[in-house]
Amino acid sequence: MKNYLLKAILMLSKGFLYGLLVQMLLVNFASIMQAKGQYKRIDEVSIRLSAPSLSVRQFFNEVERKTPFKFAYDNKKVDKSQLLVFDSESGTVEERLQVAGQQLQVSFRQINHTIDVVPTGKPAVRVMPDAVRIPITGTVTDENGEAIPGATVLVEGTSTGTATDIDGKFSLDADEGAVLLISFIGYQSQRITVGNQSSLSITLLEDQSSLEEVVVVGYGTQKKADITGSVASVSEELLQSRPVANFEDALQGRASGVQVRQTGGDLDGKFSINIRGIGSVTGSNDPLIVVDGVPLFSSDFSTINPKDITAIDILKDASATAIYGARAANGVVIITTKKGQAGKTQFTFNTDIGVEEIVRRFDLMSSQEQRELFVEAFKNSNRNISVYDDPNHPAWQVDTDWQELGTRTGVRQNYNLGFSGGSEKTQFSGSVSYLDRKGTLVNSDLKTWFLRLNVSSEINKLLKVSTNMTGSHQKQNLQNNDNWGSTGYRSLAFEHSYTPAYDENGNLTAIDNQAAPYFGANNNPLIDLLMPAREQDVTRLMGNTKFDFTPLDDLTISANIGGDVLVGSGYSYMPVYQIGIFTRPEGSVTVPNRQEINWVSDITANYEKAFNQHVFKLLAGFSAQQFVFNNSTVTGAGTVNNSLNQLSNQINFNASGTKVSSGLLSSFFRINYSYHDKLLLTGTVRRDGSSKFGPSTRFGVFPSGSIAWRVSEEEFLKSSNFLDDLKIRTSYGLTGNQEIGDFAFLTRAASTPYVFGNSLVIGNSPQNIGNPFLQWESTKQFDAGVDMSFIDGRIYATADYYNRVSQDLLVASPIPLTAGVAQEPIVNLGSVLNSGFEFSINSRNTVGKIAWSTNFNISFNKNEVLDIGENSIGESLEIPGQNIPLSNQPANLSRAGHPVGAFYMWQFDGVWQLGEEDEASSWSGAVPGDPKYKDLNGNGVFDVGDKTFVGNPHPRYFGGIDNSFSYKNFNLSVFFDFAGGYQVYNTARNLLARGVPFVQNFAEVNGFWTPENPSTTIPRPSQGGNTTTLVTMVSDRFLETADFIRLKNLSLSYNLPQQWFAGKAIQSTKFTLTGTNLLIFTNYTGLDPEASSRTSLLSSGIDYTPYPQTRLVSLSAQVTF
Prior knowledge:
Elements: H1 2-36, E1 46-48, E2 53-55, H2 56-66, E3 70-72, E4 83-85, E5 90-92, H3 93-104, E6 107-111, E7 114-118, E8 124-127, E9 133-141, E10 152-155, E11 161-163, E12 169-175, E13 179-183, E14 190-193, E15 199-203, E16 214-216, E17 221-223, E18 231-235, H4 236-239, H5 247-251, E19 258-264, E20 270-275, E21 288-291, E22 294-295, E23 309-315, H6 318-321, E24 332-337, E25 343-358, H7 367-380, H8 402-405, E26 410-422, E27 426-438, E28 445-458, E29 463-477, H9 489-494, H10 516-519, H11 525-530, E30 533-552, E31 555-574, E32 577-579, E33 582-584, E34 587-611, E35 614-639, E36 652-675, E37 679-690, E38 699-710, H12 715-718, E39 723-737, E40 749-756, E41 759-766, E42 777-790, E43 795-807, E44 810-812, E45 826-828, E46 831-847, E47 850-867, E48 879-880, E49 883-884, E50 889-890, E51 892-894, E52 902-905, E53 908-911, H13 917-924, E54 931-933, E55 948-951, E56 957-967, E57 970-980, E58 983-986, H14 987-992, H15 1025-1031, E59 1039-1041, E60 1044-1055, E61 1068-1082, E62 1102-1103, E63 1110-1120
Parallel strand pairs: 3-7, 6-8, 9-15, 21-24, 58-62
Antiparallel strand pairs: 1-5, 2-4, 6-7, 9-12, 10-11, 10-13, 13-14, 16-17, 18-23, 19-20, 21-22, 23-24, 25-26, 25-63, 26-27, 27-28, 28-29, 29-30, 30-31, 31-34, 32-33, 34-35, 35-36, 36-37, 37-38, 38-39, 39-42, 40-41, 42-43, 43-46, 44-45, 46-47, 47-56, 48-51, 49-50, 51-52, 52-55, 53-54, 56-57, 57-60, ...
């Protein structure tokens, strides 16, 4: 297995290296050929236009695409929307320019392969002689005359270039007739032809309109203006606005319809992403993640460096997602990493250092308060209280704050060096990064190294080659935060304060034999936090090489091969110890290993054709993908010496492992049609074949269609000075979900030991009942939306309504115990509805000298199980969640007419009072002070018939709002995220607010019921008996509203004055002070309202004290040079 893995990594590495080598050889060859070649004249090159009438923009684009010539002109002096009419479609470039010049009243000058457009009013077409090299100086400003520092000035076709200084000035040498390409982020680029002038004054126009924004839509890109589906985009500016360790964290609250929940504060990241609700009951609800064209198989996203990301596009409706077919039912998240830009090589160094603290802690009883609870509980249970009634007993003098001892101030350090540059033909971008985190739980840390290199080369007019490579290595020492066990933070919160932590010599200690009979055999939670070793290493390499071949002007054929290899290994050692009454006589070693290998190969053809006012874009392609997963675990035990802590030193061994592989074979087609830039149509179909399903159901077809009408192009709105763009769109389509275990359609066997005679024999037994008719879950989705832009693009808004029905759900069908297998067969049955509304608005405003931008989004979603099938006697099925500890009862139930995993339990009705003894006793055997529950079925008996649906674990609404203010060199950013309309079951209160001794209790229990304190809802303390049973019942007493508004990010940045760096290598320096998770407004009493200890949707919304979220304060610096 290890050799196979090494070969796989070697093959993947060779593929990337070969791709780079091919690029280098082809670039060198192309450069040599170009040097030997001669410039062609415009009267020597013929061209055939696509139509007799074209706009200036279309005419320039066709000439540049079909000939070696490029145009250079001033954007402010050339009307690119003007219509040009030609007497014939064929002729030389010179003849076409003569016709265009007459209509535009401009002259054209050919200088080498550049055509300079000069608005003289006297049409002419001239070819200039060979140029001489002259020194050029210039100033780059914006429309208001303000200098633009850091703008790139590049001699087109070469690697010669520079950047403007603090005053917007630059200087360089260039040939007369050469073209200078001037660009800066947020502004329209300009081409200026070098004449006999030695000084230039260049004005860049701000790119106000978001309609020119390009988004990634799957196997290609589209202008945002032409999108007919529902796509949300998160820009690099928003992604990099605060220091984060995971891209999911950067995405939280940024996009409508996309709910990102941080379910814990673990160092390796615990996030869940849901797009437009929960569509599957037992299958995956995670979206497909695509990085630079490679669909990922592993869900370990902590190995993706968020500082390498330049944009995230989220495909939400069927029109946008259907191109990914069987994996797109839960939406698609497309991540694009940074690419190189032509110009001088630029370096950017980022560093941020911060400290982290746990946001919230539990308010627990002191030792003396616990003593009082002991006394009251034993009185109520008619037990001897003599030991507990003595306030001077040594046990009550100990008051250990376990939450303080087991946690610390975390430290986060991040260092990142990025670089970018290249020529007009070849661009490169890369980075190296190091992240070091020391967790807030003691003895936990995480170190991650990142490496990225992206190279793109235009070999010639026919061929372009791009390679993207990303590598990472993680080294972790993490705490075991078993949410349903007794480790991690939970062990700190649940341990008695009267249990000592250290003895007089500073050694770990615990309850001894003398005290144990009276105070419980309580362990020291620091033993588990400090003594074991839990190490894990994860190495990941992913990337792709893509060849774009353009044999015809309108046709591009692309071949892409990519891969994602993840290798994980671990080591944990449980030591030998004897502390107090607790002893571990033997040590044990566990060594887990896993390998995940994902290969993908795509071939696509893109054809684009425009004539008159019609534009067609066609995409056709084939894709093949293979997934291989290997894991093995070896456990050894038996050592009695902690020095012998290696696997080879153990005596008894146990090994297990799995190897599975699956594949996906696909073909797809997409057509985009535009008429007059007003009517827009998109049609998509994909056919997928997956080895996860049987031969008869292996292939599925997933079609979609959408239409959009740009109302703003109608005559009655064209003259509007307020409205820039108004587009109405609608879509409908079918997508699939194949994310279940491999080969569920087969009956599988596994080795099982049994005793035959006096010997242990290994045999085989069936593990499941296969279903050869199993097929994918399918989702039908309708979407209607509107996109709007106002006031020169300063305000952009979008709104969507969607109706999403997931059917043929993959669920386990109940079977009788006599079937002889433990695992229930997976079948297709039932359906789930998600419907909702999304709205987002972005604005850019100016108030005096303050620039102010706002980004706001909100989403509403309703989730409902429509059908979940029937059993053998025709009764509707329902699926319970997992049992809550101690009570051994589920808190969730999935049933038709209610949300997936809805809360289903008894309703708490306070406590029984004096005078209600007879009713309490007859109904549930209770006495005054015991918990009281509603008798909903009216039968006078406390039973399961009194359970009812009481809450929803899924937020009905969520969103975020970000405000950014800029004044001179200062920038202030304030970002809130929020969610509401849902509940969380606080299991910590179920365990620690019961008023039961021998377990820790929350301080709120001090207000328990007594005859003197009857006006309370906190039951009386008790030890054993019926009362203890009643207080552990799963009821809405501990079901809490979890609505919250969180100040997710507050940052203040300052850019050092540019004049400080005039004439120096450093171009800019920025310092930022950032606070994350600073405030939260909520009525939820647990550690965090987003917490969910269960990953199963059937048991959603259960808070069982996961690793707490942290508050981070950091200082960062960014230097560009």
